[in-house]
Amino acid sequence: MTEARTRGPLPRTRRQIYEDRLRRRSLLIAGGSTALVFGALFLLIPLAPGWEKVQRVFFNGEVFARTLPGLLEAFVLDVAIFAWSVPMIAVLGLLVALARDVSNPALYPLRIFATVFTDVFRGVPVVLTVYLIGFGIPGLGLPRPWNSPYIWGTVALVLTYSAYVAEIFRSGIESVHASQRAAAQSLGLRDKDVMRYVILPQAIRRVVPAQMNMLIALQKDVALLSFIGPVEIFRQAGVYKSLMANFTPYVGAALIFLAVTVPATRYADYLLAKQRRQRS
Amino acid sequence: MTKTVSLAALALALSAGSALAEAHAACAEGLTLEDGTLTIATGNPAYYPWVMDDTPESGEGFEAAVAYAIAAEMGFEAENVTWVRSSFDEAIQPGAKNFDFNLQQYSITPEREEIVDFSVPYYTAPMAVLLAPGVESEATMEALQGLKWGAVGSTTAVPMLTDVIQPEQDLLLYGDNADVNAAMGAGQIDAALFDLPTAMFLSAVMIEGSTVLGQFAAEGEGDQFGLLFEDGNELKACADAAIAALEESGELAAIEAEWLQSATGIPLIE
User: What's the total number of domains in chain B?
Assistant: First the structure.
């Protein structure tokens, strides 16, 4: 051993040399095939007869540069709506999940209500909910500023998303083994405390990656609020599209969305992988 | 009108009973999607007073009537005109179109003209202010700036609002007239900007209690409506000639008088 240390790194075994060669080879093949596919796409697509027009209408550099600042400005509204919706969705979603879990017979109506809530808001298309709540409730005669589309659009988003989030929380709660509940009860904890100190801490931790997916979906669905008035990025892109008869602003908006959702997706992947490692 | 013109031609040139129609037909020959048929697109739904009852086939409504008059000038009998529906996006997307031309109050702008072709204008519409029920205001720029504004996001009303009126509160934009109507009903906006005929229709028929406050001078700020063609469509020259002929003969003005309310009495906004 000491001899080996003085002589520097161990000589590589034949096995290691073989594996290294294998790895290099597969890297080369992967790189080559990727270059081939992208190169072919890059060379062949512009050969299509309509490419010039498609490029002018969808990938117009001049229009892109002209509209990007306005799009970014409008995107601030998306981020704001997202930021104030998330805490409300988390709280309401958790409450609904807990309501579906109550075992007290006197509170059975609460359970029914929670079930109907999740069924309805998961079943109705988000756009319809946004329209109904965004135009319908203010139409009842609320004074300004309480009839603002920002408020009621947010309500619609929160209702829809908390229905999904509640179901994910519930799956987390149910994934905690029944023996945990029994053990906690045998220690003398009350039902309330069993949930609070034993079940929820485990349940919530387990569903974090799944909830990250909901966040990513919400980031995009914020754009649905544009149907009832707010000029967020999707509407702003639509305005540019109409004025310039060019779809490039939509591509710009998509890139801005991607700049946010791709890191978020990678983070969710990372959380999932971490969880797998911890469990195995 | 076309009939009288043809009759005059007949009287002038004995041997050329159908010479005029043929001369027109020649300019469209081989250029339409389907030989002998003119395919015209309009909105879905098409709104009054541009098309009555969403049935352009009847030829009733300003744009429906204009379309049939242009078709006749181009040498197409009414039964050889077919209608299709298209959205704005379908009209500007690259690739083959399912229409020869498309008319649904397309404002001619230089940016749009880079992607598609427009005919010479068949109508010039001033912009007008529609006030929600119960809202009072004055026809001055200052009063207008204090209002909560809405508009249809795909129209040229948007740059007019952001560049010319410059309201103090942020703008709310909608997908179509019906949504603007709903927002007015919900009290979310005080006023909306439309072309004058649409504003007058909405106030008279769609939104009870709403009023047309005033119109902007048609020159400069006005919207010129043109037929939309796919970029480079050679039929454009034929349609341009037809519109010019209709304008010269006074038929275009007659159709306008028949279908669009007189705008006199609507105050001008300085």
Answer: 2
Asked if ipTM goes beyond 0.85, one says no
Phi-psi region of A120 (alpha: psi -120 to 50; beta: other; left: phi over 0): alpha
Structural domain of A158: 64-279
Q: Which of residues 185-244 of A touch B (CB under 8 A)?
A: 226-231, 235, 238-239, 241-244
- In chain B, whose CA is at the least distance from the CA of A136? B186
Nearest alpha carbon to residue B181 among A117, A131, A218: A131
pTM of the model: 0.79
Q: What residue of B is the nearest CA neighbor of A245?
A: B112
The string of DSSP letters for B12-37 reads H-TT-TTHHHHHHHHHHTTTSSBTTB
Contact, A228 vs A153, CB < 8 A?
A: yes
- From chain B, the residues in CB contact with A58 under 8 A are 94
Nearest CA in chain B to A230: B172
Here the tokens at position B133 are 């029920």
Residue A59 lies in a domain: no
CB contact under 8 A, A242 and B95: no
Q: Give a yes or no: residue B267 inside a domain.
A: no
Give the domain range for residue B71.
2-122+226-261
User: Considering the domain boundaries, does residue B266 fall inside one?
Assistant: no
Per the CB < 8 Å rule, is B153 touching A239?
yes
Is residue B75 situated within a structural domain?
yes
For chain A, the helix, strand and coil percentages under 3-state DSSP, each to the nearest 5 = 85, 0, 15
Instruction: Indicate whether A77 and A203 sit together in one domain.
Output: yes
Task: Give how far the C-alpha of residue B195 lies from the chain's centroid of Cα atoms, to the nearest Å.
Answer: 9
Cβ-defined contact of A149 to B182 (cutoff 8 Å): no
C-alpha distance across the termini of chain A, in Å: 34
Does an H or E element contain A271, and which?
helix A248-279
Dihedrals phi, psi of B9, to nearest 5 degrees: -60, -40
Nearest to B223 by CA among B181, B199, B194, B250: B194
pLDDT tens, chain B, 270 aa long: 445 545 444 444 433 334 444 455 567 777 888 888 899 999 888 887 888 888 999 888 899 999 999 999 888 888 889 999 988 888 888 778 889 999 998 888 888 888 889 999 999 888 899 999 888 888 888 889 999 999 999 888 998 899 888 999 989 999 888 899 999 988 899 999 998 888 988 888 888 888 899 888 766 556 889 999 988 888 898 999 999 999 999 998 889 888 887 666 778 877
How far apart, in Å, do the first and last CA atoms of chain B sit? 38
CA-based nearest residue to B98, from B260, B247, B263, B228: B228
| Residue B88 to chain A, least CA–CA distance (Å) | 8
The Cα B178–Cα A78 span in angstroms is 24
Residue B94 touches chain A, beta carbons under 8 Å: yes
Cβ of A239 within 8 Å of Cβ of B154? The answer is yes
